[in-house]
UniProtKB/TrEMBL annotation:
One MF annotation (Gene Ontology) recorded for this entry: structural molecule activity
Listed name of the protein: Claudin
Domain of life of the organism encoding this protein: Eukaryota
Gene name for this UniProt entry: CLDN25
Protein's cellular compartments: Cell junction, Tight junction; Cell membrane
Topology with respect to the bilayer: Multi-pass membrane protein
InterPro entries linked: Claudin, Claudin_CS, PMP22/EMP/MP20/Claudin
Major location (coarse): other
Job of this protein: Claudins function as major constituents of the tight junction complexes that regulate the permeability of epithelia.
Length: 224
């Protein structure tokens, strides 16, 4: 029963880690971190990402333009680019390390200690990837809230709001962290496995020279 539970925990952790890594990669490159609806022209919707700004018109035409200069970006977007790229690399590395440490992986079966270290390392790397995903997404969301409620800006000026990538990034960070935690906790299964019970050995019986059983001596035989 315990071995089946640990196997399910490893499978669940690996699934969460893969979902989190894919979601993190999508969050990095889609231009949906912020949305802007213009009151003067309701037929256009502006979307901003880490790499470009896109305008979606009512006819379904999408026009995108890359950010002009990296140094001209706000600090939260510059650092978010770096952190999201680091998160994608750490997520891939963590998935590879954790996959090699799974009980279902046939490699290193004769070295349970090494498989346990691989699972622990993979879980730690995935947890770090989750943090490096949550930090930039939360930072951009925090600045979006500050700009939205900025009283110094006239009410007639359009304001940026949360985009779909913001929520996807939060889910990605949570999946990476949860998957890494499950994989790290399931690493104990390789070290707490119950050792096999020793086989019972029957004491050899005393045999005579002819191969038969030698009966014990009687009291009458001992009397001279």
């Amino acid at each position: 029963m315990a071995g089946g539970w640990w196997a399910k925990a490893q499978a669940g952790g690996m699934l969460l880690a893969l979902l989190g890594w894919v979601s993190s990669c999508v969050t990095t490159f889609v231009p949906l971190w912020k949305n802007l609806n213009l009151d003067l022209n309701e037929l256009e919707v502006w979307n901003m990402g880490l790499w470009q700004v896109c305008i979606t018109q009512e006819e379904g035409v999408v026009e995108c333009q890359a950010h002009g200069s990296f140094l001209a970006l706000p600090p939260e977007l510059r650092i978010s680019r770096l952190l999201m790229c680091v998160s994608n690399g750490l997520g891939l590395l963590g998935c590879l390390l954790a996959a090699m440490g799974l009980d279902s992986w046939r490699a290193c079966e004769d070295k349970p200690g090494q498989k346990q270290r691989l699972l622990l390392a993979g879980g730690a790397v995935l947890g770090t990837a989750g943090i490096t995903t949550l930090v930039p997404v939360s930072w951009v969301a925090y600045n979006t809230v500050l700009d939205f409620w900025d009283e110094t800006v006239p009410d007639i000026v359009p304001r940026w709001e949360f985009g779909e990538a913001t929520f996807l990034g939060w889910f990605a960070g949570a999946f990476l962290a949860a998957g890494g935690l499950l994989l790290a906790c399931s690493a104990r299964s390789t070290s707490t496995a119950t050792p096999p019970a020793p086989a019972c050995h029957q004491l050899p019986t005393t045999r005579g020279l002819g191969g038969g059983h030698h009966p014990p001596p009687k009291i009458a035989d001992l009397v001279i």
